[in-house]
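Run Lipid/polyisoprenoid-binding YceI-like domain-containing protein through structure prediction, thanks.
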Amino acid sequence: MKYISIILLAWMTFNRAGQDLYVCKNARINLFSSAPIEDIKAVSQTGASVYNPTTGQLGFSVTIRSFQFAKSLMQDHFNSDYMESDKYPKAIFNGTVKEPVDITKDGSYPITAEGSLSVHGISQKRTIPGTLVVKNGVISMEASFMVKCADHHIDIPSIVFHNIAESIKVDVSATYTKYNPTN
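Sure, done. The structure for Lipid/polyisoprenoid-binding YceI-like domain-containing protein is below.
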């Protein structure tokens, strides 16, 4: 809730009050790394997102420590050795959905979000393809993309080079509800 409040406050600063905003407090974000020795999977179900269908503005935020791994040792290494989660606690995307979407009509809309992805303290411009689905007034969004560790200065020691891929697959799934400031 804390992060959604921060995102909303930032959005309210730049957007006119009263515009329809949609929020998601439990976006699911999967990480997958395939390497010769082992595959590594992690999931967070606490991502926060805000979408403004009028302007196309889209924001995501996830706490790095919220990712859960099958092996606790992997999770410890992820947070302390690679992501430095105490120093860089969140990954954030701020951008715009380029295609206009009529949220009053049910349908599946291919979309492209352009913006900045900040991971490990390094921001990179990204163009992320995805799908926005409107069904019975419910908006959901899915996206899948690759992130190179080197793009965000995430160093992989040579001793574990065969354990961790140079690029991580990221899958995002979010279902939105209309923002109600009284909730």
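The mean pLDDT is 88.
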